[in-house]
Amino acid sequence: MPTDLLGLLRQNQGRQFELHDRHVNPRMREMLRLVGMDADYVRAAGRYLYDAAGRRFLDLVTHSGVFSIGHNHPHVAQTLKAVLSAELPNILLMDCSLLSGLLAERLLKTAPHLGKVYFGNSGAEAVEAGVKMARGATGKPRIVSFVGAYHGLTYGALSTVGHEMWREGFAPFLPGCVQVPFNDADAVGRELARGDVACVLGETIQGDGGVGLPEPGFWPAVADLCRRHGAYLVLDEIQVGLGRAGGHLHAYQHYGVEPDMLLLGKALSGGQAAVSALLMRDEIFSRVFSRVDRCVIHSGTFCENNLSMAAAWATLDVYDDEDLLSKSEQQGRYFLERLLPLREKYELVHDVRGKGLLLAIELGPPRSLRLQMGWRTIAAVNEGLAAQMIIVPLYRDHGILVELAGHNFRVIKIMPPLDISREEIDHVVESLDRVLAESHRFPGGNWGLVVEMARRAMAV
Ligand SMILES: Cc1ncc(COP(=O)(O)O)c(C=O)c1O
Predict the structure, then answer these.
(1) pLDDT at position 35, please?
(2) Are the CB atoms for 441 and 100 separated by under 8 Å?
(3) CA distance 79 to 70
(4) Which of 10, 97, 318, 355 has CA 20 to 30 A from 210's CA?
(5) pLDDT of 235-251, one tens digit each?
(6) Residue 331, Cα to own-chain centre: how many angstroms?
């Protein structure tokens, strides 16, 4: 008898932790339990997650931007259903699919200086393709990326990541990869001057590094250096693209620069089918796919599958229909304005910054002796614990989901769906204000919570 999958899920409701403990990733379960964020989610719709106990959570994590149009958007779901029931030819080896051609045409209209698209299934795959194309097209070996960068965890991508947390234990990496400080065009220039660099790969705005904004003139200077030294500029907008930075579809459009290759992922999928895209100059494609017998010289079985192509197409429809680019700009400006006073009000808040709906609250050591005692106690165990003092009560008491920036444990990153409302922003800021006030009471307040967390972390 065929399985009634939804029935199966209902029968097994609540077993996910036990199953993952045994068969998937027990460490994930440990971490969720440690921070008290092990809710039994049963539904996701729009800007909210719902758990079995009937609580709802405003999602300001969105898996680093995947859910920019919200969870399970009905237009994407309907489009996927339509594609599934149409019995279209799919991922044939000897074919050029219409759907991928249409999607490529639509994407390239948003970046008219670029001429070809390579589709992938994940962000890391797009990064892999980018560095490989750069080497293939230039014949040069080296890849310059940035300290603090995150580009994914497959070997090529990991070789360009600029943080030890991800790399520890996995050396040796792809030869010829070097990281220079972000915002330091002179350092980029010194590497390029050696004449052997295939590409400079950077996130237009650093996401997991802690929302690192490029200084004015940085990207144009890097683009100019790349041009002079015959290297390509590859911008990774897997996290910060597709309207996240507000106003424009692509983040680079804010910074007076045009990349030779542009990497998209996450939000492009509408959160419902895996997809990424590498948009490149025609010249790069022609140099790599240089003869007819090299027509699949870089390719993958599922790369242009119908569900991914349709999900991306429908997601772009939602951006147009719901005017998400203006929303992300307006709401982003409002959110930042409302968050900025927290920097003056609370000594633990060292900075508040952002672009569009990519926002960061950076914590740091307090000035007052009283709070310094608490800070030192928890920092000795784990730097990330201070931020948990904010993240956990926001989640537990206010139904708001935020997270640390990937490997910058002092930064709380806020990435809501792009249609977040003013009322929701007000609720977040007022809740943050309350939680921060509690975190400035020592002893007591939220410090007890993290000291207990530290104790449990050491016991694990
Ligand atoms: C900037 C950036 N590049 C690449 C990736 C890798 O994407 P994926 O996890 O889909 O492989 C990510 C994922 O977080 C990212 O943020």
Answers:
(1) 87
(2) no
(3) 16
(4) 318
(5) 999 999 999 999 999 99
(6) 19
**Average of per-residue pLDDT values in the chain:** 96
SS3 call for 107 = helix
Q: Quick check: CB of 265 below 6 Å from ligand 1?
A: yes
CA pair distance 235, 241, nearest whole angstrom: 10
Q: In whole angstroms, give the CA distance from residue 328 to residue 322.
A: 11
**Contact criterion met (CB below 8 Å) for 81 and 73:** no
For the CA of 208, the closest atom of ligand 1 is 16
3 state SS of 31: helix
How much is the pLDDT for 460? 64
Q: What is the pLDDT of residue 368?
A: 93
- Retrieve residue 453's tokens: 């967390």
- Ligand 1: distance of its center to the CA of 428 in Å? 26
> Given this model, what pLDDT does residue 455 score?
80
Q: Which helix (H) or strand (E) holds 142?
A: strand 142-146
353-371 as b/e: b if 16+ CB within 10 A: bbbbbbbbbbbeebeeeeb
Ligand 1 pocket residue status of 449, Cβ below 6 Å: no
Q: Is 150 in the pocket of ligand 1 (CB under 6 A)?
A: yes
> Is the model's pLDDT at 454 over the cut of 90?
no
Cα 276 to Cα 264: distance, rounded to the nearest angstrom: 5
- List C-alpha distances in Å: 139 to 10, 133, 135, 437: 55, 10, 5, 57
Angle between helices 447-459 and 26-34 (to 10 degrees): 150
What angle is formed at CA 149 by the lines to CA 230 and CA 361, rounded to 5 degrees?
A: 135
- Of all protein residues, the one whose alpha carbon is nearest to atom 13 of ligand 1 is 152
Question: pTM score, two decimals?
Answer: 0.97
Please indicate whether residue 124, judged by its CB atom, sits closer than 6 Å to ligand 1: yes
CA-closest residue to ligand 1 atom 8: 123
Would the CB of 238 count as within 6 Å of ligand 1? yes
Q: Which of 307, 257, 286 is nearest to 111 (CA)?
A: 257
